[in-house]
Amino acid sequence: MTFQLKGLSKYGCDDIEKIQLIREVLKESAVLKNIHYDYCDDIDVDYAKMSYDEDIIEERSVCLNVDSVSFKEDELELKYCPECGNKYPRDETICPDCLVHLKSDSGKTDVGKIESKQEFMFTAKNDYCDFESLLSSENISKINQFNFSIKDYTEILFLIRKQALGHFDSMIKANEIDFDSLEILDKVLLFSKSFVEVDYKSAGNQLGYFEDNTIFIDDRQTKSLQITTLIHELSHFILKEMFAFILCKILDASKNALIDAVAVFILSNLPFTQLIDEYCAHNVEGRFTIFGYQDYSSFHQIEMSLKDEMSPEEIEITKMIGNTFANSIKEILESVIDRDLREEIKAQFLNDVLDRPNYRELAMENCQMLNEEGLVKSIWLILSEGCENASSNIDRLSAILND
Q: pTM here?
């Protein structure tokens, strides 16, 4: 695997959009000093090679590059009960039936209470009912032969995107939601529910986690952190779905819980795929975060745990692969989280954050991505290594399936 992973480096190319974005924030905002740039006047910049001196961060609000936003609440004519939904005059405070405090939101839907048992479908010829047949020697050979193209990859992204937007549209219509009137957290929450269930956690120090097609977030956190946590964990789910669909395509198989379990195993049980998965999720999250508030902490933790298993060169290649997948996921998310919503997210950050921005995490940004040939080869490497390993770990697959 080491030789094959390193071989992907020759397929790298500049991620022009990211380079331009980082150049803009670092040069125009003038928030960093004593930084050494390895670039010429053209666009070929490698910001992953930036070196930082200690204590280089200056507190400058101009770096956020977001206009001040003031919010004025609409005049509300009704209150509603968050339990039964009944409406009451503005001067009422308690629902006599449910004995709870009324909300002043004119009957607004509680997005958090909307159920979202979504299912992403891929229908094909074969329908496997056990791991032994799914990961048979014949199927492992098909995976290694890898009859899969960039056109197939593009079609899979389109299929995931189409189904998610179908779920999104159905939820809005079924719950009679005026999407534009929602707060930004509820907008991101509703869109997240187009993919997965969302539940709340109240213990532990994690901001959130993804497990069994459910995102768990800590609603004690600020709204801006809840938003980025949702996006981060949603990225884990979408990457898992991408590999489940790819496996279905190669094996001409209908998607089911077994294939989902194999996809989860592949991304979570091999060192290099753990890094790819985590870097990808952080990278997508960073797309919707104000510069200076990117956070690669969980990637750092995994990286440190693997420092004796992977070289710095191999880690950079996993970041390049993760960056490539992240660009695909961003395109799916930006179907709804467009420029206007990203501005709302920035405004929420301005309202929530108290700490000054820290630009050191920008050094984690890998400004390389794989070309089409390299992308296909990376998918082959992940699936071939992952499925070979999975076929020898049926017990662990069964544990994932039964969790």
A: 0.82
